[in-house]
Design brief:
Length: 256
Amino acid sequence: GADPLLSHLYQVIAGWDFARNQPYYNIAYNLTLGLPINLFLEGSGAGHTESASITVPLAISLSESQQTLTAGYTRTTELEIVEEGADEPTVLERPRVTSLVSANYTFSSSHREDFFGMFSTLSTTVDLWNQNSSTEWRKRVVVNLSEQFRLPELQTHTLQTRFAAGWTDAEDDDELFKLGATIEEFLLLKDQYTLRGFPADAFTGRQFMLTSLQQNFRLIEIERGITQWPLYIDDLGLSLFMDAGMAADKLNLKEL
């Protein structure tokens, strides 16, 4: 939901987890007036998450570029299943609490001239986190650069490039960088670690590098409905792409 001026955005989702026979919930709130503030709460039988973030605009231009700095804090509690005892092991659920402090700097720009357009985004994210109130903080740095060129022939004819790289000193397997693609990520390119053409988690490590090139264009303009059904077909398009990337504890560019 939202207020009439779209200054306050909110979402509440609640339900029942039949597998664990426990309720779950998802609550999100966004303040878009002034300094944007985001609040998020999520909980289920497997744990819960609380997060808050604030975004500060550093430079704003309606026609060319803008810069933003976002700082946030996330606390996640997960229930781990562990076995204790050698002779007669007992299965216990033990909470694992992760505290994450993050900062993100984003620079975006756009340039239009006649039918040509170029849109660029550069972001740098720094994460610090620990587990169970430990004094040892892990670190992660990720840089992501994406560019989109709208070619003059058609508005829907675009050329996209992407480059991402990262480093972490994490030790646990679930905290390492993992390159690959699930079916959903393959279709939507929704994750910055998506490497199409490889199974999920095909490459893992403390360092990663990823680049891609994609061309999108329209084949046929259909723009027709199907009789009286509430269905409408706009057009038929085609995308050609090439992905390359690698992840390892120490990268060797010769293996790319």
